Hints:
Layout: E1 24-28, E2 31-36, E3 54-59, E4 72-74, E5 80-84, E6 87-91, E7 96-98, E8 114-117, E9 123-127, E10 130-135, E11 138-141, E12 149-155, E13 161-167, E14 170-177, E15 180-184, E16 196-199, E17 205-208, E18 212-215, E19 222-225, E20 236-238, E21 244-247, E22 252-256, E23 259-262, E24 274-279, E25 285-289, E26 293-298, E27 301-305, E28 316-321, E29 327-331
Parallel strand pairs: 1-29
Antiparallel strand pairs: 1-2, 2-3, 4-5, 5-6, 6-7, 8-9, 9-10, 10-11, 12-13, 13-14, 14-15, 16-17, 17-18, 18-19, 20-21, 21-22, 22-23, 24-25, 25-26, 26-27, 28-29
Amino acid sequence: APQRGAGSPGSAAADMPGTTFAQKIAIGITVLWMVTWVQPSWGLDTSRDATKYGHTVWRNLDGFAAATIGPIAQTSDGYLWLGTPTGLLRFDGIRSVRWSAPPGSALPDERVRALFGSRDGTLWIGTPRGLARWKDGQLSTYPRLKGRTANASEEDANGAIWVGGSGEGKAFLCSVSEGKEDCHGVERNLGGAILALYRDTSGNVWAAGQDKVWNFKSKPTASFSLPNPIGALRTMTGTEDGTLVVGARGTILTIANGEVHAMQLPSWTQGLLFTKALRDRDGGLWISAADFGLLHFHANGVTAFTSSEGLSGDHVLGLFEDREGNVWVSTS
């Protein structure tokens, strides 16, 4: 397989005629969609909204056009990994290939709910029946998490992987390192499920349930009740100053200085269900809303980016920024 990352020299991103810098990329079920802003420097002009970017489209992911793409991750070899309800895809910037487990091994379930690429090159794969680890051609699973739904993964400052989800109607949160799992659940009163994990700029690991958020690096553990419930997976991100941002039903919530507040939003966002959240490396905030595309928060305000402006679909299933600064969006 070609050892190159999406957007690297030789990839479709670099081969676009007349394009010197691929700034934004997005991906749909039956399309690969790239948004570009041509400029001589590498930093994103945060005064511009997403409608100002050009874009190009790839169609039909090598026979997987019918599969919805949810979580997206990248490993240190440059490959992007795409989670679908029917298995795992590997994408090299030109084509997608269905990944298969080595003989004698298998994922706990082919339905991929969570993906995470850790610093050591490992791909962590969350499914409705457990967690798998793919590294150096070896696939391993974790017996303690067998049968549990893994919804989210994150890496802390010490290299331990945190995994959150649910099992038997109760939430769990596990720290995985050196083949061992340290799990918490009922004793931490985590509710029915962990829906999102996020490490902030200070190294704090946050876990989001449906109506509460916990900070697991504070001593003692701090918890914050949410006035509006979370309605989707991967709904949490943060700003450079450490403010936590959580998408919820009807509002976007912020947590800073021990307080929860509703973000001031334009009137046209009323009633939306906010479903995915991402802060890019340039400080731009991207938050999706069910059947309403993306909201882009930038230096000049908030703008909508929907299928009317060229987004591949209005229902966003995943948001991810790769190591080159490209933002990928999977849609229906």
